């Protein structure tokens, strides 16, 4: 278990410098940044308007505001870092849903059924129950 834990978090050690840049490009030491990003970091650290925007506190909104062409590598890094945690959460959530639906008593579920269960469980679609019920009542009365 300890080895599994160390293996899982060893990946974070590899991306730590990129996560540091993502979390605050204004305090990172330029020398510690990858060479390909150093000029962009120097430019952004000298831009007072962007520093003020960053200090407003909404990290993702800050990265939406920076110029796509001027800070291309910083934006790509931000996209990668921001998606890192969201995709892990979605993966674990989906696996949990799968485990909850494929229990000992429901072990005969075919792959197609499980796919349908996962699609419904992970969808943001909200069905209009009242409309469905009224439609069913209309069909039943005809």
From TrEMBL:
* Residue ranges of domain HAT C-terminal dimerisation in the record: 53-118
Which InterPro entries does this chain map to?
HATC_C_dom, RNaseH-like_sf
Could you state a single Gene Ontology molecular function term? protein dimerization activity
Q: Please name one Pfam family that this protein belongs to.
A: Dimer_Tnp_hAT
Locate the transmembrane regions by residue number: none
Q: Which domain of life is it from?
A: Eukaryota
PANTHER family for this protein: DUF4371 DOMAIN-CONTAINING PROTEIN, EPM2A-INTERACTING PROTEIN 1
What protein is this chain from?
Answer: HAT C-terminal dimerisation domain-containing protein
This chain's source organism reads: Parnassius mnemosyne
Q: What is the lineage of its organism?
A: Eukaryota, Metazoa, Ecdysozoa, Arthropoda, Hexapoda
